[in-house]
Design a protein that fits this description.
single chain; 310 residues; alpha+beta; Helix Hairpins; Heat Shock Protein 90; 2 domains; two-stranded antiparallel sheet; 9 helices; 9 strands
Length: 310
């Protein structure tokens, strides 16, 4: 609290005590006002989260009800094996029907994936091997879009403790998002590296980066990128993909960071705790375990892409 006078003046001890008490009371009042504003803000956030939770449960129930008839429609569509001669306009109509069925299927699967709360089944995972397998599974999709995949993998990367199926789903989501941002072709670079701990008490961490040369994102898009949204677009399905990625990585005690600028591409960095060398233990190797789980994740996230890669 600052007090000024027009003329030179010496404050008495009594005046100083009064002003000091006034300053202290003013500080307490300001602090309480700020705390009250924070309480109101938190209450609003809680109401918003409760609403989102209710909407999520409703969406999951609706998705369950849609999936069964959608599966029947998909089976009947493929069983009809509709083929038309070259130049017949009905051929394009049939193709559009098939694409829309797959689009709906992806939306349903993303909603159900987001609604699931399964805990990770932790086991040793070789991330380099997992990324190699995913690269093979999406290679045809990348070729079709004129996208080159570059892998810069740390050769002595230690295994981590994680759920290979969930990690495969998260990484595949990031790779597919990158392809959607490079409609005119480009380069997708996947990098793995081992980082030293920032503090003595921290352990080493494995960093996996997915960098594309696509259209990039605005600051507002970056801010909302990992927020769950049931809105859909023609190309991307639901807005749950990155929210699912964030949930999976955080369940593995990791972090996800996004850097992007319009016209400069996007880089998504995933940081996970590194395991100890030789932590694989007896039984099947992490690399062998990752391959079938990567295929399962690819089949769920991108059925057509998984079939192309086979």
């Amino acid at each position: 609290l600052s007090v000024y006078t027009d003329q030179p003046y010496t404050f008495s001890n009594e005046e100083i005590q009064i002003l000091s008490a006034l300053a202290e009371l003013s500080g307490i009042a300001i602090q309480k006002a700020r705390l009250y504003e924070r309480v109101v803000e938190v209450e609003e956030q809680l109401r918003h989260h409760e609403k989102l939770s209710a909407l999520g449960l409703l969406a999951a129930e609706v998705a369950h009800e849609i999936r069964n008839p959608l599966t029947v429609i998909k089976m009947l569509y493929h069983s009809l094996d509709l083929r038309f001669g070259e130049g017949d306009p009905r051929a394009r109509d049939v193709q559009i029907i098939g694409e829309k069925i797959e689009h709906l299927n992806r939306i349903v699967e993303q909603i159900l994936d987001f609604a699931r709360t399964a805990e990770p089944a932790f086991a040793p995972v070789d991330l380099n091997q997992l990324i190699e397998e995913l690269g093979l599974l999406v290679r045809h999709k990348l070729q079709q879009q004129n996208i080159r995949l570059e892998r810069r993998l740390e050769p002595r990367l230690p295994p981590i403790r994680g759920d290979a199926a969930q990690l495969a789903q998260a990484f595949l989501n990031l790779m597919l998002n990158a392809t959607q941002a490079m409609t005119g072709g480009g380069v997708l670079t996947v990098t793995t590296r081992l980082t030293a701990p920032a503090k003595a008490r921290d352990g080493r961490r494995v960093v996996i980066e997915f960098q594309d040369t696509g259209v990039g994102m605005t600051p507002e898009q970056c801010r909302r990128a990992f927020t769950a949204s049931l809105a859909t677009t023609k190309a991307k399905g639901t807005g749950l993909g990155l929210a699912i990625v964030k949930r999976i990585i955080e369940a593995h005690h990791g972090q996800v960071r996004l850097q992007s600028r319009p016209g400069r591409g996007t880089t998504v960095s995933v940081s996970l705790p590194a395991g100890r060398q030789g932590s694989g233990g007896p039984g099947r190797s992490p690399a062998r375990r990752a391959a079938p789980l990567a295929e399962a994740a690819a089949a769920r996230s991108n059925p057509r892409g998984a079939q192309d890669a086979g």
